[in-house]
UniProtKB/TrEMBL annotation, chain A:
The keyword Protein transport does not apply. Key component of the proton channel; it plays a direct role in the translocation of protons across the membrane. This is ATP synthase subunit a. CDD domains: ATP-synt_Fo_a_6. The chain crosses the membrane at residues 21-40, 76-99, 106-124, 144-164, 171-190, 196-215. It comes from Methylomarinovum tepidoasis. GO terms for biological process: proton motive force-driven plasma membrane ATP synthesis. InterPro entries: ATP_syn_F0_a_bact/chloroplast, ATP_synth_F0_asu, ATP_synth_F0_asu_AS, F0_ATP_A_sf. Keywords: ATP synthesis, Cell membrane, CF(0), Hydrogen ion transport, Ion transport, Membrane, Transmembrane, Transmembrane helix, Transport. PROSITE patterns: ATPASE_A.
UniProtKB/TrEMBL annotation, chain B:
The chain crosses the membrane at residues 6-27. Residues 31-116 form a coiled coil. InterPro entries: ATP_synth_b/b'su_bac/chlpt (IPR002146), ATP_synthase_B_chain (IPR050059), ATPase_OSCP/dsu (IPR000711). It is a single-pass membrane protein. Signal peptide: none annotated. F-type ATPases have 2 components, F(1) - the catalytic core - and F(0) - the membrane proton channel. F(1) has five subunits: alpha(3), beta(3), gamma(1), delta(1), epsilon(1). F(0) has three main subunits: a(1), b(2) and c(10-14). The alpha and beta chains form an alternating ring which encloses part of the gamma chain. F(1) is attached to F(0) by a central stalk formed by the gamma and epsilon chains, while a peripheral stalk is formed by the delta and b chains. Keywords: ATP synthesis, Cell membrane, CF(0), Coiled coil, Hydrogen ion transport, Ion transport, Membrane, Transmembrane, Transmembrane helix, Transport. It comes from Methylomarinovum tepidoasis. The gene is atpF. The keyword Transmembrane helix applies. Belongs to the ATPase B chain family. The lineage of its organism: Bacteria, Pseudomonadati, Pseudomonadota, Gammaproteobacteria, Methylococcales. The keyword Cell membrane applies. This is ATP synthase subunit b. It comes from the Bacteria.
Amino acid sequence: MEGEIFPQVLWRLGPLQFTDTLVTSVALTLVLWLAGWWLSRHLRLHPGPLQTAVEAAVLAMEDAVRDLVPRYVEQVAPFIMGLWWFLLAANLIGLIPGLQSPTRDLSITSALALLVFLSVHWFGIRTQGLGYLRHYLQPFPFLLPFHLVSEITRTVALAVRLFGNMMSLDLVALIVLMLAGFLVPVPVLMLHVVEALVQAYIFGMLALVYIAGGIQAHEAKALQKGESQ
Amino acid sequence: MGINWTTFFLEIVNFLVLVWLLKRFLYRPVKAMVARRRREVEARLAEAEKRRQEAEALKRRYENRLADWEAEKKRAWEQLRQELEAERRRRLQALEQELDEQRRKAEAVWEQEKREWRRHAEEQALQLGAAFAARLLERLADEHLHHRLVALLLEDLEKLPAEEQARIRSAASVTEPIQGVSAWPLTDAEIQKLNQVLSWILQSQTEMGFSVDPDLIAGVRIDVGAYVIRANLHDELGFFGHGHG
């Protein structure tokens, strides 16, 4: 049971330990790349159903980004879109027999959460320069520790939320399967689909909100400047 | 359950690679295609708008042209109506003139026919009168009347104007003898007297030959060459019957 739920080290190379979740994650990257490459080679002016669905998804994601950071859509959208596509695929791949969701591995979710944390500051500094860091001292410098704790906790929460939900779903499905037998966990698997979509959406949306919060001061200044003109 | 740092760092790399790949092979191409389609749609919309405006302009032009045609048609109709009216008046006038001419001609023909009819009636009346007079005179004529007519002829010849006498002389033929026709036999005295008078007129000695023709009813007819001296009822009635009485 433990071997099916928790990540397994497939092979070792010195101090490096390659787990099945990492392999699955890399495989997903390859699949998404190949799918994107194949689709980009078959784009038509008069799209078919698949192209229409992909275009609608891409434009919906872009619109979501545009709603929060209209001036930095081109910079932010690829990162958020990458999160959504990856998490969607990673959360749903566990439904395929013999495969496990990489997001049930805390290492994976922590890596993604760390990337979100870094991207918040990356976009903040990119849009406002190093002056962005001043917001840790506002409204009062003594609030700096609270800001730091807030940053760390929300990043940890981001990682643990996704990990916990996906792990618990897999765990519940396995327990029900062991207790009730074949076909009984189907409703749980249906719930898994919904949960996978919701968790992917929440993770990407929170990342977008955090990034937007990082560049919010700059956006507000720009908007005030535009209105005054 | 803990963090596998190999997985952690490699996942960071893996995800960054994924972001780059999706941006390169999905996001940009899809965006480019959507932008291209939007440009295409906008171009088609612009083209449609341009064609609509052209169609509007064409429609306005055709409406103006139709209005011009309508005005031109009205002018043409008015001109045609005026020409037809003028032609109708001209033809009516010509017809009236022709009718007047025909009427005048008919009146002239009618007058001519009337005159002819009147002349014919008169001629018939004269002929009837002559016939009546001839029948009456045939019954009334006798030798005494005959001699009386010869006496009147002699009186007239003696009183004949000089011009008439010259005309008789010019008509008289030298070779052809003077021939007389009498309804009744003439007396010797009458023959002698006639010879004397004619000799006096012709200024030459003349001897006439006489024959009897009862058709003359009464009186004589003397042929002096081309000149005919008539003093008989038959010729007089004939002249009367032909309107020369």
